[in-house]
Specification:
310 residues; mainly alpha; 0% strand
Length: 310
C-alpha cells in the first residue's frame, strides 16, 4: 500500500529553517500573482515620477481593507472547518474499523478452518472499505491498491460498481448476517456489529457531503475579484508617501493577502494530494498495520494462559 508522504513534525524543526521551507507552503502558487502586483506597482511609481498624478489618499483604502479582512477571515475559517471535520471523520473511521475488526476476530466462533479464513477475508474488507472511500473522495477508479485486500472475483466485481465502498459494506454486512444464521453470534452481537458498520457508512456519507459541497462559486469569484482590485489599488495609495518603496511594500501586502486566500483554497477539499491535505494514504496504512497485528493473535487462547510462568 502507498503509505503517503507526510511532512515532518513542525515542532521538531529549527524555527529559521521552517520559515524558509517551500514544501507545504503556498508560496509557489502565489508567487506569480505577487510578482505581477509588484511589477504593476513599479509601473504606477514610474508614472508618478514622470509627473502623472495617479496618487490616491491613503485613507481611501481603510474601509476596503476592513471589508476584505473580514471576508478573508470568514473564507479561511470556513475552509479550516471543512478540513477539521474531515479529519474527525477519518479519526472516527479508524476507531470504528478497530472496534469492528476486534469484535469480529474475538466474538465470531470458529467451528472449522474455513471460518478463520472467512474472518481474515472480512477483516481485509474493512481495510478495503477505507481505501475505496479514499478513492471515491478523490474521484479515482478502483485500482491495484485494492487488489491485495480482495479475492480476485470480488475485485473484478468491484471494478464494475459505481460506488465501490457501498458494495464492500454490503459484503461485510452479508458476512455478519451469515454468521448469525450459522449461530456463530447472537442477535445482540449482530446488532452491535451492524451499528459499527452503519457508523462506517455514515462517515462515508459525511465525507462525500464535504467533497460534493464546495464553497459557492459566486462567493469564490467575488472574493478573488475583491482581492485583485485591492492589490491593484494599493500602489495608488502608497506612491505619494513611499515613492520607490511602493513596489516592495505592495509585494509584501499582496503576499499576505494572496497567501491567506490560497491557504483557504488548498484546505477546503481535504481529501486530495496537496501537501496540506489529510494524509489519507498514511491513515489507510495505519488501519492495515493494526489489522495485520490483530490477525497474528489467537482469539481462542487467553493472554494469561500464554504468559504463565514456566
Amino acid at each position: 500500500m502507498n503509505r503517503g508522504k507526510l511532512l515532518p513534525n513542525s515542532n521538531h524543526r529549527p524555527w529559521f529553517r521552517f520559515i524558509w521551507q517551500w514544501q507545504g507552503s503556498v508560496i509557489p502558487a502565489i508567487l506569480p500573482r505577487v510578482s505581477a502586483c509588484a511589477f504593476f506597482a513599479l509601473g504606477v511609481t514610474c508614472l508618478y515620477y514622470f509627473g502623472i498624478n495617479v496618487a490616491l489618499p491613503l485613507k481611501s483604502g481603510l474601509v476596503p481593507s476592513i471589508v476584505l479582512g473580514l471576508l478573508l477571515v470568514f473564507r479561511t475559517n470556513t475552509a479550516y472547518e471543512r478540513y477539521w471535520e474531515g479529519r474527525k471523520l477519518w479519526g472516527t473511521l479508524i476507531n470504528t474499523v478497530r472496534n469492528l475488526s476486534r469484535t469480529i476476530w474475538v466474538i465470531i466462533k470458529e467451528n472449522d478452518s474455513s471460518d478463520r479464513t472467512e474472518k481474515i477475508t472480512t477483516l481485509k474488507l474493512l481495510i478495503a472499505f477505507a481505501i475505496a472511500t479514499k478513492l471515491q473522495l478523490r474521484s479515482e477508479p478502483v485500482n491495484e491498491e485494492l487488489e491485495r485486500f480482495l479475492p480476485q472475483e470480488g475485485y473484478n466485481k468491484l471494478c464494475t460498481m459505481s460506488h465501490p465502498p457501498l458494495e464492500i459494506a454490503f459484503w461485510i454486512g452479508d458476512y455478519l448476517q451469515q454468521q448469525y444464521e450459522k449461530q456463530a453470534i447472537d442477535s445482540y452481537q449482530l446488532t452491535a456489529m451492524f451499528k459499527l458498520l452503519d457508523t462506517m457508512v455514515d462517515v462515508l456519507g459525511a465525507c462525500e457531503r464535504i467533497f460534493k459541497t464546495p464553497i459557492p462559486l459566486a462567493y469564490t469569484i467575488h472574493l478573488k475579484q475583491l482581492v485583485l482590485l485591492y492589490c491593484l489599488t494599493l500602489p495608488f495609495q502608497f506612491v505619494d508617501e513611499l515613492g520607490w518603496m511602493t513596489a516592495p511594500i505592495v509585494a509584501l501586502i499582496s503576499f499576505t493577502i494572496l497567501g491567506i486566500e490560497a491557504i483557504g483554497i488548498e484546505i477546503e477539499d481535504p481529501f486530495g494530494y496537496d501537501a496540506n491535505d489529510l494524509p489519507l494514504d498514511q491513515i489507510c496504512y495505519t488501519m492495515d498495520r493494526n489489522i495485520e497485528d490483530l490477525i497474528t493473535l489467537d482469539p481462542s487462547v487467553s493472554y494469561f494462559q500464554e504468559n504463565q510462568p514456566q
